[in-house]
Amino acid sequence: MSVAAIGSTTTSAAAKGQDRAIVLVHGGFVDGSGWEGTYKALKADGYDVTIVQNPTTSLAADVAATRAVIDSQTRPVILVGHSYGGVVITEAGNDPRVAGLVYITAFAPDAGESVGKLIANPAPGAPVPPILPPQNGFLFLDRAKFAAAFAADVRPDLAAFMADSQVPWGLDALNGAVTTPAWKSKPSWYMVATDDHMIPVDAQRFMAKRAGAKTVDQAGSHAVYVSQPQAVAKLIETAASSVK
Question: 3-class secondary structure for the chain?
Fold first, then answer.
């Protein structure tokens, strides 16, 4: 194949991907600002990107917020979820405008499953998230343990800021169960963060395999989308250029 042909093929694949809208969905304890690095990487490559700001009060409210963003898109959507955001995209991804799903060290529940159910019986030796007892129906992570559990490879001052600016995560979000998993009818991709201390690596692999997701490993903490935005953007671009 000639250099000109290779260049043409690469341009064609990029152009195809850029015909997809990227919608990024954050998880619990954080807001959409953590996607900034990934957003910038995708925008630099010519993608149309929107970030959902979930209220994280209940799964129903978060799915509604995500569907509102999906409704505003004029192109087929690649729906991306981090952590609990994976539950949101698993439910909201049934929208016909969604062409593919990307899970970034995220929960990918089956029908009837919630985060609460998936984390109820951790395997011996598995990391246990430092979730404090509920306060008025909301959850927080122990600020002193936040960096080690959630953001071990994030710049220390940024990890401290994330700990101190936590978004309350509602018990109704934790226990919100998926009805029909979108991954059963939509192609999916999964990034396993191999240094995650919030979702055990074995659990990530199990959910990815069950969903039939194309899986990549990435050295990184639970906040891999913050610490490794280029790698996360690359996987999203792969998904965007792969879907029909």
Answer: CCHHHHHHHHHHHHHHHCCCEEEEECCCECCHHHHHHHHHHHHHCCCEEEEECCCCCEHHHHHHHHHHHHHCCCCCEEEEEECCHHHHHHHHCCCCCEEEEEEECCCCCCCCCCHHHHCCCCCCCCCCCCECCCECCEECECHHHHHHHHCCCCCHHHHHHHHHCCECEEHHHHCCCCCCCHHHCCCEEEEEECCCCCCCHHHHHHHHHHCCCEEEEECCCCCHHHHCHHHHHHHHHHHHHHCC
